[in-house]
Protein backbone atom coordinates (compact mmCIF):
# COMPACT_ATOMS: atom_id res chain seq x y z
CA UNK A 1 0.00 0.00 0.00
CA UNK A 2 1.49 3.28 -1.12
CA UNK A 3 1.22 6.39 0.97
CA UNK A 4 0.28 8.95 -0.10
CA UNK A 5 -2.75 7.35 -1.69
CA UNK A 6 -2.86 7.26 -5.46
CA UNK A 7 -5.58 9.29 -7.16
CA UNK A 8 -7.35 6.03 -8.01
CA UNK A 9 -7.35 4.84 -4.39
CA UNK A 10 -8.50 8.25 -3.16
CA UNK A 11 -11.43 8.22 -5.59
CA UNK A 12 -12.57 4.89 -4.16
CA UNK A 13 -12.95 6.34 -0.64
CA UNK A 14 -13.32 10.11 -1.05
CA UNK A 15 -17.12 9.95 -1.10
CA UNK A 16 -16.99 8.62 2.48
CA UNK A 17 -15.06 11.65 3.71
CA UNK A 18 -16.78 14.60 2.11
CA UNK A 19 -16.05 17.86 3.88
CA UNK A 20 -18.69 19.75 5.78
CA UNK A 21 -19.69 22.58 3.49
CA UNK A 22 -20.31 24.84 6.48
CA UNK A 23 -17.40 25.83 8.72
CA UNK A 24 -18.79 26.14 12.22
CA UNK A 25 -15.93 27.67 14.22
CA UNK A 26 -12.20 27.53 14.78
CA UNK A 27 -9.50 26.88 12.26
CA UNK A 28 -10.27 25.71 8.75
CA UNK A 29 -10.59 21.94 8.45
CA UNK A 30 -7.59 19.97 7.21
CA UNK A 31 -7.77 18.29 3.84
CA UNK A 32 -9.33 14.86 4.48
CA UNK A 33 -6.96 13.25 1.98
CA UNK A 34 -3.93 14.51 3.91
CA UNK A 35 -5.45 13.34 7.19
CA UNK A 36 -6.27 9.92 5.75
CA UNK A 37 -2.73 9.55 4.41
CA UNK A 38 -1.41 10.28 7.91
CA UNK A 39 -3.82 7.82 9.54
CA UNK A 40 -2.86 5.10 7.08
CA UNK A 41 0.83 5.81 7.71
CA UNK A 42 0.31 5.20 11.43
CA UNK A 43 -1.90 2.12 11.23
CA UNK A 44 -0.03 0.31 8.45
CA UNK A 45 3.27 0.72 10.27
CA UNK A 46 1.92 0.16 13.78
CA UNK A 47 3.54 3.45 14.78
CA UNK A 48 2.77 5.87 17.58
CA UNK A 49 0.86 9.01 16.68
CA UNK A 50 3.59 11.29 18.02
CA UNK A 51 6.03 9.80 15.49
CA UNK A 52 4.03 11.05 12.53
CA UNK A 53 6.44 12.81 10.13
CA UNK A 54 6.23 16.60 9.80
CA UNK A 55 4.97 16.41 6.20
CA UNK A 56 1.58 15.23 7.53
CA UNK A 57 -1.02 17.30 9.41
CA UNK A 58 -0.50 17.52 13.20
CA UNK A 59 -0.69 14.18 14.98
CA UNK A 60 -3.39 15.37 17.40
CA UNK A 61 -5.59 16.45 14.49
CA UNK A 62 -5.14 13.09 12.77
CA UNK A 63 -5.73 11.12 15.97
CA UNK A 64 -8.97 12.96 16.73
CA UNK A 65 -10.19 12.49 13.15
CA UNK A 66 -9.27 8.78 13.34
CA UNK A 67 -11.34 8.44 16.53
CA UNK A 68 -14.31 10.21 14.92
CA UNK A 69 -14.13 8.15 11.74
CA UNK A 70 -13.66 4.91 13.68
CA UNK A 71 -16.67 5.62 15.92
CA UNK A 72 -18.76 6.42 12.84
CA UNK A 73 -17.71 3.13 11.21
CA UNK A 74 -15.89 4.91 8.39
CA UNK A 75 -12.44 3.47 9.08
CA UNK A 76 -13.72 -0.07 8.61
CA UNK A 77 -15.29 0.92 5.30
CA UNK A 78 -12.14 2.71 4.16
CA UNK A 79 -9.81 -0.14 5.09
CA UNK A 80 -12.12 -2.66 3.42
CA UNK A 81 -12.35 -0.57 0.25
CA UNK A 82 -8.58 -0.14 0.09
CA UNK A 83 -8.01 -3.78 1.10
CA UNK A 84 -5.79 -2.81 4.02
CA UNK A 85 -5.41 -4.88 7.15
CA UNK A 86 -4.69 -3.02 10.34
CA UNK A 87 -1.47 -4.19 12.02
Could you explain the architecture of this structure?
The protein is mostly helical and 87 residues long. It has a domain at 37-87. Helices cover 49% and strands 0% of the residues. It has 4 helices and no strands. It has helices spanning 7-13, 32-45, 59-71, 74-82. Helix 2 (32-45) crosses helix 3. The longest helix has 14 residues, at 32-45. It is globular. The two termini are 13 Å apart. The mean pLDDT is 91.
Short recap of the structure:
This protein has 87 residues and is mainly α.
Order of helices and strands: HHHH
Largest sheet: none
Q: Which of globular, elongated, flat, extended, rod-shaped describes the shape? A: globular
So how many helices? 4
Proportion in β-strands:
under 5%
Fraction of helical residues: 40-55%
Cα end-to-end separation: 13 Å
How does the helix and strand content classify structurally? mainly alpha
Rg, Å, rounded: 12 Å
- Low-confidence runs: none
Query: Could you report the average pLDDT, rounded to the nearest whole number?
Result: 91
The beta-strand count equals 0
Protein name: Putative transposase of IS4/5 family
Pfam families: DUF4096 (PF13340)
Amino acid sequence: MDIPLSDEAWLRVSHLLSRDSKQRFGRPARDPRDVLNAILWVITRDEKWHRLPANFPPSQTCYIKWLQWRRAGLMTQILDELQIEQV
